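Input record, target 12 of the design panel.
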């Protein structure tokens, strides 16, 4: 079982994290990668010139990683530690940058499994959005010209994570919902399949309950969301995701639908695979007054459907997890296209 070794949670852990970093590193050897959405919130705590604020409009790309690496290497002082404050996209960028600062070449050459040979520099994560699980996993999911795939490496695993609701308490409701649903779907997909173990099942079950409590009972406890995100992220890292993620990757890659929203759209059509949780998901939509986009398929061609299917077919591990060794016959073109045509 792989998991992040050092995790702090609770009020004040954001400030504690900054103090911890500067106890181990001098000001000049730390570089901060920060989501511009929390710029005003954090600027009085993180006082340094070694900082870049990123405005996230699209899912992160390998080119963005390469540009950031170039930018950080221009620094007069050797950077030894990254402080990363953001949602899944910023965290994935930061994790990839940490590895590409020590490994030669371009980020696109590292999309795959365990390709980096050298450990990245230290990366300390402060999520400002709860649900993606990026703070818990060894994957940095990136788009390149050809594909959407992670740099999946033990060297991408965060060195330390600080979970503080202060950073997520002003996330807009719809973004919070879709990111929370990414987490909910992680828990369902981890639980439903042959991979994983007793621990992943427990982690995923807890994450599922926390999400349901938050989105159905209006618990408003944002620490629950941070906890769920971390637990479900750890669970999928040690088991797998499933067919929702497989089908949603094409939707994000071809049409730029954000990850959480793409998953929600696909999951709503997967009652036959995942059963009751899809009904619970529908209740959560209603309770939170969220309306899923409809009739997306109307503007897609047969060629688009097939391209998305081909993208999904490459994700063998999640398909094996949910459908078993005979996945190829179950994940047929008919099966995938039927779902795409109903979105
Ligand atoms: Fe996800």
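The sequence produced for target 12 reads:
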């Amino acid at each position: 079982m792989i998991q992040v070794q050092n995790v702090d949670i609770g009020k004040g852990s954001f400030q504690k994290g900054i103090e911890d970093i500067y106890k181990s590193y001098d000001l000049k050897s730390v570089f901060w990668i920060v989501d511009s959405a929390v710029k005003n919130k954090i600027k009085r705590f993180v006082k340094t010139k070694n900082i870049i604020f990123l405005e996230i409009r699209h899912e992160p790309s390998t080119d963005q990683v390469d540009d950031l690496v170039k930018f950080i290497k221009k620094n007069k002082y050797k950077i030894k530690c990254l402080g990363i404050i953001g949602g899944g996209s910023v965290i994935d960028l930061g994790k990839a940058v940490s590895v590409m600062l020590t490994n030669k070449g371009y980020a696109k050459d590292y999309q795959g499994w365990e390709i980096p040979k050298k450990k990245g520099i230290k990366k300390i994560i402060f999520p400002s959005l709860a649900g993606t699980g990026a703070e818990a996993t060894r994957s940095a999911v990136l788009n390149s010209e050809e594909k959407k795939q992670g740099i999946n490496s033990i060297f991408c695993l965060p060195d330390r994570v600080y979970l503080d609701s202060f950073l997520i308490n002003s996330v807009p409701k719809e973004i919070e919902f879709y990111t929370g649903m990414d987490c909910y779907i992680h828990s369902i997909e981890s639980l439903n399949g042959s991979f994983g173990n007793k621990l992943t099942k427990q982690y995923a079950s807890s994450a599922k309950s926390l999400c349901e409590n938050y989105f159905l009972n209006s618990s408003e406890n944002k620490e629950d969301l941070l906890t769920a995100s971390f637990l479900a992220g750890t669970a999928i890292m040690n088991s797998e995701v499933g067919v929702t993620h497989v089908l949603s990757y094409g939707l994000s890659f071809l049409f730029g639908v954000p990850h959480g929203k793409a998953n929600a759209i696909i999951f709503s059509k997967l009652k036959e695979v995942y059963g009751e949780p899809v009904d619970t998901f529908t209740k959560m939509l209603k309770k939170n007054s969220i309306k899923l986009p409809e009739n997306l398929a109307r503007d897609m061609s047969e060629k688009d459907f097939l391209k998305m299917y081909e993208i999904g077919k490459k994700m063998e591990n999640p398909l094996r997890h949910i459908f078993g060794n005979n996945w190829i016959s179950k994940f047929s073109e008919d099966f995938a296209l039927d779902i795409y045509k109903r979105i």
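Residues 29 and 79 are 4 Å apart (CA to CA).
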